[in-house]
Design goal:
Layout: E1 10-13, H1 23-32, E2 38-43, H2 55-62, E3 69-74, H3 82-88, E4 92-96, H4 103-112, E5 117-121, E6 139-143, H5 157-171, E7 178-182, H6 190-196, E8 200-203, H7 205-210, H8 213-221
Parallel strand pairs: 1-8, 2-3, 3-4, 4-5, 5-6, 6-7, 7-8
Helix pairs in contact: 2-3
Bound molecules: D-xylitol-5-phosphate (DX5) and zinc ion.
The site of zinc ion has 6 residues, from β2.
């Protein structure tokens, strides 16, 4: 199975906020600036009220990427598309708890494709619901905004959820579990997010609007 890189924290710029007309150059620039993962937001206009990209665009991104593609599927019934996104070049596949009727089966399907599996929870979904799947997954993605759009404000309750999740994971021996946080992450709140127990920070609009990708990524890394 592919692996999530070992370093902590990992910084995962969200390509949703890059200039899509210059996607190849943007990927090269963000990797040169120190990105560890490339976060790819897939939205279907059904699970979330926005539509972004599908497998062909992920494949186009992959052609320019040296770093792993961290593909965040904000889509209903993701089982239908796992193989397509794996084929397009995803290196990590994350599905939403709220979108899966048979989450354990979905996680197995991701593993059968040779990829690490992430499960994401929306702001109103408690992290304790994940307890029985934590031993089977590599990552939890805690949403710190309601998914659908970049540029929203960080919801502070996410901090408690991260700490609670870290405690639950440690209690049941899942010490390798990665916790990723996505939505409204900035250089101002990165330190407290990491202190709460997060290993992977996704940040989109803050990095791409900064005008200094390298400076902003190193500020997030701290
Ligand atoms: C939101 C997406 C995020 C988003 C992050 O639905 O999952 O990855 O692009 O963007 P910022 O950092 O601007 O909140
Ligand atoms: Zn995302």
């Amino acid at each position: 199975m592919k692996r999530i890189p070992d370093a902590r924290p990992l910084i995962a710029p969200s390509l949703l906020s890059c200039d899509f007309a210059r996607i190849g150059e943007e990927i090269q620039a963000i990797e040169a600036a120190g990105a560890d993962l490339l976060h790819v937001d897939v939205m279907d206009g059904h699970f979330v009220p926005n539509i972004t990209i599908g497998p062909p665009v992920v494949a186009a991104m992959k052609a320019h990427a040296a770093r792993p593609l961290d593909v965040h599927l904000m889509i209903s019934d993701p089982d239908r598309y796992l193989a397509d996104f794996a084929k397009a070049g995803a290196d990590i596949l994350t599905v939403h708890w709220e979108a899966c009727a048979h989450l354990h089966r979905t996680v197995q399907a991701i593993h059968d494709l040779g990829l690490p599996a992430g499960v994401s929870v929306n702001p109103a979904t408690p992290v304790w619901l994940l307890k029985d799947i934590l031993g089977d997954i590599e990552m939890v993605l805690v949403m710190s905004v309601n998914p659908g759009f970049g540029g929203q404000r960080f919801i502070p309750q996410a901090l408690e959820k991260i700490s609670e999740l870290r405690n639950i994971a440690d209690d049941i021996g899942c010490t390798d579990l990665r916790i990723e946080v996505d939505g409204g992450v900035t250089a101002e709140n990165a330190a407290e997010i990491k202190r709460a127990g997060a290993d992977i920070l996704v940040s989109g609009s803050a990095i791409f609007k900064s005008g200094d990708y390298a400076g902003y990524i190193s500020a997030l890394r701290g």
